[in-house]
Amino acid sequence: MNLIERLNLNFAKPTKSLILLGATGSIGTTTLEYLRRIKTIKLKAISVHQSTHNLNKIIEEFQVEQVAITDEESYDRYIKNNQNSRIKFFRGSEGLVELIKNSDADTVLTAVVGAVGIRATIEAIKHNKKICLANKETLIVAGDLILEHLKVSRSPVIPVDSEHNAAFQLLFNQNPENINKLILTASGGPLRDKSVDEIKKITKQEVLNHPTWKMGQKITVDSAGLINKGLEIIEAHYLFGFSYDHLDVRIHKESYVHALIQLKDGSYMLSTSPPNMIFPIAHALHFPEPLPYTLKESQEPEEWPALKFYPVDENKYPGFTLCLKAGRRGLSAPLVLNASNEVAVELFLQDKVHFMDIPKIIQDAMENIPLVEITNLDLLLQEDQKTREFVYDKYNRVLI
Asked: Which of 40, 78, 217, 363 is the most buried (most CB within 10 A)?
């Protein structure tokens, strides 16, 4: 199956109206910035989690019609203090699904963090909406389910993550038989120049100080351990259909090249832009049409830094290796990997475990939770909860 068939790209149309899930996160705020510029896409609905302090401003500026607040306590506080009969509000993770059911917007951009995006994405696919996918957990945890749903839907899927969007642009209309390997790049994160011994003494503040991208805390921690890149390899497997033998990663500190493909003759093609999420966001929203103008963030090649690439040191990034193992094992292994990592990162941010303990916690879960074939959403949610309870019960009260 080629990429066009795999991701339903024949059904893709430029976005005219949008549901933005995760409107106050880094991708969400960049999307809002882009919508302010072009004024040709109607923002019909948004979701936030706990960040309701700017919600009134967004609602008023974009004349949003529907809002989901996924954190239930935040919803209750907000509704108590804000009355707006024009807006239809939805509560909790169930509200995220209901919002999609009740909106006639043609596109959903999923910029929420974590497995909460899975049900919302499946609901959008059921309603044949265009999916601009910035929630990597959707495919990592539920890749097989998503692909099955796409087979009976007219929903096109356009990846928004900078690496996957770059790979998408390189692979689109390429003959798969001509491609030897897909390579995603990684900045190396805030610990890229640290030794293993230095990482053992690293502080939370150092982990959260990313040298290139300004992101939320969870994804910054993932980036520091290169777990983020390992998860992206699993996502690329489901998006593009490559086996793990034909997927690879290179450290590229400059973050200008986001993906490369190696052709069968050994030559390379690469996709390059300054490290700004506005490029993949704009591409995904306009696809299949090209952007109508040059983004002001673009740079001439002489302004680029020198482009250098390095292999991944798996001794330094054990979490990356665990991601590859989970991907190759299949079944529910990626689900266990993702859920245990989410809880481990939460415990790290709460100062209950050290940064170096995160891969240990993941490995413990992968070794002790039996793997199953994920055949439906209820089973997926059950296994996800089982993994989270295993980690939380074991590590929440005791430092390793």
From this structure: 78
Measuring CA to CA, which residue among 15, 7, 22 is closest to residue 42? 15
Sheet holding 157-159, edge to edge: 88-91, 66-69, 42-48, 17-21, 107-110, 130-133, 157-159
Q: Tell me the C-alpha distance between 397 and 101, whole Å.
A: 40
Q: Where are the alpha helices (DSSP H) in the chain?
A: 3-6, 26-38, 55-62, 72-81, 92-102, 117-126, 137-151, 162-171, 196-199, 204-207, 217-224, 227-240, 278-286, 318-329, 333-349, 357-368, 377-395
- At 156, the amino acid letter reads P
**Domain boundaries 3-160, CATH class:** alpha beta
Give the pLDDT confidence of 161-186 residue by residue, as tens digits.
999 999 999 999 899 899 999 999 99
Measured at the CA of 162, the angle between CA 161 and CA 165, to 5 degrees, comes to: 80
Place of tokens 């949610």: 381
State the Cα–Cα distance between residues 130 and 158, nearest whole angstrom.
8
Considering the entire predicted model, what is its pTM? 0.94
Domain segments of the chain: what residues?
A: 3-160
Long-range contacts of 59-62 (CB under 8 A, 24+ apart): 59/84, 59/87, 62/32, 62/35
Hey, which residues does 301 pair with through a beta bridge?
Answer: none
Q: Compute φ and ψ for 34, nearest 5 degrees.
A: -70, -40
Could you tell me whether strands 257-263 and 88-91 are parallel, antiparallel, or unpaired per DSSP bridges? unpaired
pLDDT in tens, 316-349: 999 999 999 999 999 999 999 999 999 999 999 9
Q: CB atoms < 10 A from the CB of 76, how many?
A: 12
Buried b vs exposed e over 193-232: b needs ≥16 C-beta within 10 Å? ebeeeebeebeeeebbebebbebeebbbbbbbbbbbbbbb
